[in-house]
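Blinded run. Sample ID left blank on purpose so nobody reads anything into the name before looking at the predicted structure. Input follows.
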Amino acid sequence: MNLPTTIEGFVQAQNERDSASFSHYFTADATVSDEGHTYSGRAEIREWIQQATEKYQMQTRPINYQQSGASAILTVEVAGTFPGSPAVMQYHLELDNSLISSLRFTG
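Blinded prediction complete.
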């Protein structure tokens, strides 16, 4: 599957547990909604992903990608140390040029 460069780098940074690189795929004022919380800006997103990957030891494998305009859905298989692993999840993304401006999860 061919992913846009931003999405490919975002997934790679998450799998390498590189929270600093991960956060640079987001706009300066981006938001992430996860488990009932919203994280705003690169610093909060970096802290959130660092804590989540340390806690759950997550690895993601993209299985589908669809984009229409600035909206995209990345479907991934997520494995880690959480109940129900592995799980299929959808990453709902809003893009601003080549960066992510919004991310929320379903699945």
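Unblinding after everyone has recorded impressions. The first strand starts at residue 26 and ends at 34.
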